[in-house]
Design goal:
It is built from 13 helices and 27 strands. The chain is of the alpha/beta class.
């Protein structure tokens, strides 16, 4: 649009959207990046914010700081309330915006699989707000337990249940165990911290189903050594504010239930009259374009793309590669060239379990223990955006590793101390 250049709208500033912006920066196009948050979140470390290991600011970076040196990139803080692909327009902040090309990279939402009570009771871990809410809640449970005189209520407050044995569930369980049996043991000498429980529930027969059996078995043993109770082949029947009922008939009494069992496509996509897969993700062709729309792409967690007969996982490497390819294909279209099919390059997977312990699988090579943990640290610190953020995270990691302390054990804002609190931030979110 500017100077006659094609106008490209990118919806979402996650990994896919941000890497698409980087690919288009400095080119003869005008780009508008739309996101409701004015920052990009490094989601692989989100669980560490929830476990009071690092500060929220350490994994967030202002979008305007990222694009300030590119005159062809503009940012709009807004949510897209409507998207009309036929007329090539969208509505954001009540304003109609026209585009020549569009990349939908809105990410994903939590999939509760219709389990009664799950959506209304469980905490989820998808945004920075979610992580801060979880941190406040966990810390406040300890404060309430210290004030509580009833043993049963105290046990319920200090039982933390995680549903889902994938990477997020495993990493959070390990980080939470180190928080409970490390700093919190010293902070709350008035009761036996060994009575606190971390319960990890997984419906399949093993943890980390995307990794080889040997790494899955190592993960199970390591979590158990940290004090995590792992319940495999256990299905959740319903969830109440006081606990989780499993299909075998037992109930885990807990006032903190974190749902890490699955994700689905973006909620807003259901109202945009575009083809969706069964889990709500946007169905795309081999070049990432939406069927019947030559100028609209979907990338990252929002896209359903099949590779070797299976949909690609909703991970950062997939999102980055798809964001780059979608942007490159738009540039090819503008030049009158043929678009290219997306080919995912699988660089492997890695999951950290706790101090000196991780698992990794690269090109068929399996690593576990300290060496895998070092690889995990280096890769995540290298890929974190912003020099300041790298320093903040490194300092927090160092404090945790050498001093056995968590630097961010703060309940903020102060209104989270009010009686009967679940989380003032959670209530604020639910009203939105």
């Amino acid at each position: 649009m500017n100077n006659g250049n094609p106008h490209i709208v990118i919806i979402g500033a996650g990994f896919a959207g941000l890497w698409a912006v980087r690919t288009l920066s400095g080119k003869n196009v005008q780009v508008t990046l739309i996101d409701k948050n004015n920052y990009h979140t490094f989601l692989p470390l989100l669980y560490q914010v929830g476990a009071a290991e690092i500060e929220p600011e350490g994994i967030a970076y202002p979008i305007r700081s990222l694009i300030r040196k590119y005159s062809n990139i503009k940012y709009l803080r807004s949510e897209v309330s409507d998207l009309d692909l036929d007329s090539k327009t969208l509505i954001a902040n009540g304003r109609k915006i026209s585009f020549d090309y569009c990349i939908i990279a809105t990410g994903c939402t939590t999939n509760f699989f219709g389990i009664p009570g799950a959506e209304s009771v469980c905490f989820k871990l998808k945004t920075l707000d979610d992580a801060v809410i979880i941190r406040n809640h966990i810390l406040t449970c300890f404060e309430r337990a210290a004030f509580c005189t009833g043993i049963e209520r105290q046990n319920s407050l200090l039982t933390f249940t995680i549903v889902g044995g994938g990477p997020t569930g495993v990493e959070f369980a390990g980080a939470l165990a180190e928080l409970l049996y490390g700093p919190m043991r010293k902070d709350y000498p008035e009761y036996d911290i060994n009575k606190a429980r971390i319960v990890l529930i997984e419906s399949s027969s093993r943890l980390l189903g995307m990794l080889p059996d040997a790494l899955s078995s190592y993960t199970l043993k390591k979590l158990q050594s940290l004090g995590v109770e792992v319940m495999l082949e256990t299905s959740v029947e319903n969830i109440t504010p006081m606990g989780v009922k499993i299909k075998e008939g037992a109930t885990v009494e807990s006032e903190t239930i974190l749902w890490c069992a699955g994700v689905k496509g973006p909620v807003e996509a259901s109202g945009w009259r575009i083809p969706l897969a069964k889990d709500g993700r946007i169905t795309v062709s081999e070049d990432l374009r939406i069927k019947d729309y030559e100028n609209v792409y979907a990338a990252g967690d929002a896209a359903w793309f099949e590779f070797n007969g299976k949909p690609l996982p909703q991970t950062a490497p997939v999102a980055i590669q798809q964001g780059v390819m979608a942007a490159e294909n738009i540039l090819r279209q503008i030049k009158g060239s043929q678009t290219l099919p997306f080919r995912f390059v699988d660089k492997g997977a890695m999951v950290t379990i706790g101090r000196n312990s991780a698992v990794a699988n690269f090109a068929g090579m399996k690593f576990k223990g300290f060496f895998a943990w070092i690889i995990w640290l280096v890769i995540h610190l290298t890929n974190l955006i912003g020099f300041r953020n790298k320093i903040i995270v490194l300092i927090n990691w160092s404090i945790d590793y050498f001093l056995f302390e968590r630097a961010v054990r703060l309940i903020l804002p102060s209104c989270c101390n009010e009686p009967g609190f679940v989380s003032c931030l959670r209530r604020r979110r639910d009203k939105q």
